[in-house]
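4.2 Preliminary Data

To establish feasibility before requesting continued support, the project team ran the inverse folding procedure on a target of 441 residues. The structure was first converted into the token representation described in Section 3, and no sequence information of any kind was made available to the design step. The complete token record follows.
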């Protein structure tokens, strides 16, 4: 944990250690950052996901503490009695950081830090820290910086408090207040600059999208909870080499690859993983990226089959909610359960009964991928138009183009030319209208 210039507490990467031969508790005690996870939950007592986020950010989790509340306390997130309990628990487990399972207001964070005497971070700060460490492309770095600045803008305080003057009125405006105002102005200017640069990126994506739309190829977007195996599935279906790692939010930048089904080309896009309580700053900053999801002909919702039923259902609802928030809730959808290679036969059969319309696959072993291709082809059949054509032999180029777009076609050589029956993207059917003999209905 370190203090930035604006006075915010920020996560810093924990140093790597060779801990062979020591148990988890020993490693946690030696870690530079040791977090106590706390949550004010309406129901349940599970803050395991927050713990996984912290571990992804390089922070050791040394304890958990949950209070059942209908709503978080407006001043301290937890109730006053529970705050005292958290302070005692933090001392007992040697925590030097408290992490909350919700986004805190600036007032809640300030009051908690004063009451506990420890740095406090919320779920949003942890997620933003992970995004910052995983961003690789120039666009991804711009998006993450914008989200961080917007999140921190309301929390710029603390560093200059030693320069503040008490009182009010003429002659009492101290340099501390002036410096905070300067920091906020600089932050707003930077936010405006980032928004302009991201608008340029959005324009570039629009040009690329227009080129793809001109090609009129069916588009498929993989969506799902983070670490559900979407990138592995892209590689298994297309033979690509998209980066894969067993960690949360490994994929931030969308990767589009060519997928052939029935000989016809399709565009398959791997998108950023979703998570429950996804910070709205990230949804806004990644709007250009999420545009790919909104425009896809088919969304393939990938579930982690190895997750327990309750957790898997919570993940599914979180993805559905996020899709609604970004305006993609009405897009056609296909449910896919991944990682069945980690399950026994009985569990696989349970999933088949519980999710009868889902396709069960293993991206790691290839099991179920052929069924998935067939289901995708069936779901996208409405984007195709059947044609019955007679192509003169002199127009061999058009015939080659038809082979590329339609994949498998039925052809018959006649004295007048090649009689062809094929399914092509509806947007491209007009290209071949002059060869039409009859159009199947």
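Position-by-position output of the design step:
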């Amino acid at each position: 944990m370190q203090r930035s210039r604006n006075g915010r507490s920020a996560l810093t990467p924990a140093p790597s250690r060779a801990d062979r031969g020591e148990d988890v508790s020993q490693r946690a005690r030696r870690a530079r950052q040791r977090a106590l996870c706390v949550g004010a939950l309406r129901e349940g007592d599970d803050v395991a996901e927050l713990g996984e986020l912290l571990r992804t950010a390089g922070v050791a989790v040394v304890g958990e503490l949950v209070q059942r509340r209908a709503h978080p306390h407006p001043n301290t997130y937890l109730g006053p009695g529970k705050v005292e309990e958290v302070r005692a628990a933090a001392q007992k487990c040697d925590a030097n950081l408290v992490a909350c399972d919700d986004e805190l207001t600036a007032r809640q964070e300030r009051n908690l830090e004063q009451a506990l005497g420890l740095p406090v971070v919320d779920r949003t700060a942890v997620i933003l820290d992970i995004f910052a460490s995983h961003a690789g492309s120039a666009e991804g770095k711009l998006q993450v910086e914008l989200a961080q600045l917007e999140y921190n803008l309301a929390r710029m305080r603390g560093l200059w408090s030693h320069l503040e003057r008490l009182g009010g009125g003429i002659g009492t405006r101290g340099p501390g207040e002036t410096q905070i105002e300067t920091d906020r102005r600089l932050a707003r200017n930077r936010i405006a600059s980032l928004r302009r640069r991201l608008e340029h990126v959005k324009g570039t994506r629009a040009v690329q999208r227009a080129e793809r739309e001109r090609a009129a190829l069916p588009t498929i977007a993989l969506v799902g909870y983070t670490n559900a195996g979407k990138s592995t599935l892209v590689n298994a279906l297309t033979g690509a080499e998209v980066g894969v790692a067993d960690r949360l939010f490994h994929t931030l930048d969308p990767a589009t690859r060519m997928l052939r089904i029935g000989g016809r080309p399709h565009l398959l896009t791997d998108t950023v993983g979703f998570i429950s309580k996804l910070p709205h700053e990230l949804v806004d900053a990644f709007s250009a990226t999420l545009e790919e999801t909104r425009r896809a002909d088919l969304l393939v919702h990938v579930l982690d089959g190895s997750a327990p039923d309750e957790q898997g259902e919570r993940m599914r609802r979180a993805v559905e909610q996020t899709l609604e928030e970004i305006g993609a809730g009405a897009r056609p959808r296909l449910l896919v359960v991944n990682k069945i290679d980690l399950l026994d036969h009985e569990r696989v059969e349970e999933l088949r009964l519980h999710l009868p319309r889902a396709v069960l696959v293993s991206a790691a072993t290839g099991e179920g991928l052929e069924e998935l291709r067939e289901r995708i082809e069936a779901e996208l059949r409405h984007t195709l138009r059947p044609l019955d054509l007679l192509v003169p032999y002199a127009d061999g180029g058009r015939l080659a183009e038809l082979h590329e777009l339609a994949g498998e076609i039925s052809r018959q050589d006649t004295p007048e030319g090649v009689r062809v029956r094929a399914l092509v993207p509806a947007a491209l059917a007009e290209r071949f209208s002059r060869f039409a003999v009859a159009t199947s209905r």
